[in-house]
Each structure stands twice: as C-alpha cells, then as structure tokens.
Amino acid sequence: MTSSGQGEHLDLQPVYATQRSVLAFYVARSSSLIGDSAAAAALALLIYQRFGSTKALGAFFVAKAAPRLLGPLLGSLSDEYDLRQLLRACDAASAVLYTVIVVLLPGLPVLLTLVVAAEVLAVINLPGTRTAITRLVPEERLTNATANVAAITGLATASGAALGGLIAALVGARYGLALNALSFLASGLLMSTLSPMPPPSTAPKTPRSNRLSRLVAGFPVLLSHRVRVLPLVLIVIAFGAALDRSALVVLSQRVLTHGNDLAYGFAVGAVSIGFFISATFVRRRPVVVGYPTLVVALALQGVSHSVAGASPNAAVLVLVTLIIGFGNGLEVVVGMRLLQKSVARPSLGAVNGALLTATTLLDAAGSAIGALMLTEVSARTVFYMAGGLMLLGVPPTYLGARSRDRAGQLPRPD
C-alpha cells in the first residue's frame, strides 16, 4: 500500500534503500560537496585578492554563516518533506545561483547577497543529508552509514578545496565557481535516480500558521539533560575554528615561506583529509562513539590550532591542519551518532537545525572577531588564541560528560 493522495502516511514499517541506491546517494552528496568546497576556497581567495581587505574577507565568512541562524526552521523541513525532492530542489537552485556569480562576477554587496542565498540552500541541505541517511538504512547499520557520510564529506571537501586552490592558482578563482555550479547539477541528476524518501509516519505535521514556532522547536531537546554536553563541545570548537579562519588565508598568502593560493587550498584540503581518516577510523572502531572521544577531539584541535600558528612553512601548516581535520572528524562523526541515539527520529531534522544555529552564532562571531583582530595582531597570534580557547573548553566538557555518565543520562557506546 502507498500513502493517500492527501499526503498522509500510513503507519507502515519503513522500507529501506538498496545498497545501490545508498551508493548513488553518497555519490550525489560527494558531487555537490566537491564543487562547494572548491567554490569556498576560490571565493575566499578571490575576495581577498580583489578587495585587498581582511574586513571584506570577514564579511564573506559572516555571510556564509549567517543563514544558519535559520537552522531550526529550515532543518525542520527535513522532518516534513520527501528528502529526495527537497535535496534535488536545493541542488538545482544552488546551480543557478553559482552560475549567476560566474557570469556576472558582481561587486562585494551583490556577491555577498548571492552567497547568503546559496548558504540558505546549504542550511536545508546539511540537516537533510544527515536525516536522509536514517531513512536509507536500518538502525543496525547507522553507525557505519553515518561514518560513511562523514568520510565522504571529508574526502570530497578535501579534494574540492585543493582543486579550488589549484584552479585559482592556474587559471583564476572564477573557474572554481563554475565547477561548483556543474557539481550541483550533477548531484541533482543523481538524486533524481533515487526512490522517494518520505518522512516517518509519526513525523509531526506543523500547521502553516505555526511554522515560525519551528524556529525554537529543537532547542529544548538540545538543552535537555540527556543532550546538553554535546552542543557545549561543538559550540566551543565552532567559535575557535572560525576565529582563525581569516588568519589561515593571511598566513598562507603573506606570512609563510612559499605561501600562495595553492598553499591555502592544500591547507584547507588537509583538514578534510584528516576528517576522512578519522571518519574511517570510527567506522572500523564503533566502540569509540562516546562522550570521552568528544573531549579528546576538543583537546586535539586546541593543541593543533596553537601549533598551526607556529608553522614555519606551507608544508608544516598542511601537516598540522591534517591533524586538525582528524580531531574535527572525531567530533562530527561521534557527535552525529550520539545525537541520533539521543533524539527521537521525527524531531531529528529540527534538532540538527537548532544545533546548526547554535554553532553558527559562534561561528559568525568568531569569523567577524577574527577578521577584526588581524588589524591589530598577527595571524599567528590569532591561531594561538583560537587554540587556547579550545583548550579552556576541555575541563568543563569533561566534567559535564562525567556527571551525566554517573547519572546514567548518556547514551551507551555502540
């Protein structure tokens, strides 16, 4: 039997996807991520070189982060709509937006407006991707599937960032943006080959008049005693990583020996390769899925960000950013899985959106503050401060996880 013409879902057992369909989903997400990462690297370099201002660079990173404030509202769409249709529509609209940027190459105000529009679609896309995997595979395969999504994300982002830096160095940043438009088109076509991914039969149906209430729907769950430690870790990391984001561009362009566009692209790519390695590690060792691993990830990133600031040349910077990526991968994969185990499926999209908004507030603040700091202190100093901030978050995170564990309020490792 199928759902009725009115779109109401019958209380049937979910039908999970075939391995071939899951693979197509992985390839579709990889395609869009490769292009998006290439475009992010190309845009950062383009803005810094074209406008010659760290403030313009900071404005770009804030523009990329600001739409995530709508995370709960946009993330909740994943709980209510067929994800094949939703993700396909996002891919098509993103392809159009990046095509406009490539063709017009507008001034900074218009460019930032288009970036904001593209990031609104990305905010729908990220919770959608994380929620989609729970509809494609059964519970017993979710840890591996979640790690696969994270590994693919890391590998695609790495190759995209390196490709964006290479394209910018060889033929110009504009062509990196063209690659992104093509990647979204390819992703949309692949998503069209998948079967429908409707929401669970128990998914909440929000009346249109109450749609704005979804803006805060996920926050009570995030602040509950069962989940509270998780956002603390992710928020501290989000602010610290954003603080030295502009500093990475300056460090790779001006400060390091042999610094250039390619050095920046490979540094960003190394973060994603480290992400891929750690995601693969979690896939092989699911027992590490627990809050102690989050504490380790936070400490590892704090130390690595501090060491990155002392890098004497591009080769050392790339090596250190590889370690940063490994810590980031542990944080994301373990965090995603713990969230899946702690939150009811029908609300997972809204909670993912709320977490996205919480981290984005700190991400935007970190990007803006980091860019302004570069007018007063060196890029190296900004890295030291970002790393120190992350290390300051280790003790309260550890104590919080320990107290919840003693109370039996944390999900058990896989």
Task: Note down, in words, how this protein is organized.
The chain is an all-alpha fold and 414 residues long. Helices cover 74% and strands 0% of the residues. Helix 11 packs antiparallel against helix 16. The longest helix is centred in the first third of the chain and has 33 residues, at 19-51. The protein is globular, with a radius of gyration of 20 Å. Residues 1-15 and 409-413 have low confidence and may be disordered.
Distance between the termini: 34 Å
Report the sheet-strand fraction. Answer: under 5%
Task: Give the overall form.
Answer: globular
Classify the secondary structure makeup into a structural class: mainly alpha
The CATH architecture: Up-down Bundle
**How many domains is the backbone divided into?**
1
SSE topology string: HHHHHHHHHHHHHHHHH
Question: How many strands, which pairing sense, and closed or not: the largest β-sheet?
Answer: none
Short description:
The protein is mostly helical.
Question: Which terms summarize this structure?
Answer:
single chain; 414 residues; mainly alpha; Growth Hormone, Chain: A; 17 helices; 74% helix; disordered N terminus; disordered C terminus
Task: Annotate the secondary structure layout.
Elements: H1 19-51, H2 54-65, H3 71-75, H4 77-80, H5 83-104, H6 108-136, H7 142-170, H8 173-191, H9 219-222, H10 229-243, H11 245-255, H12 261-284, H13 291-308, H14 314-342, H15 348-373, H16 379-392, H17 394-406
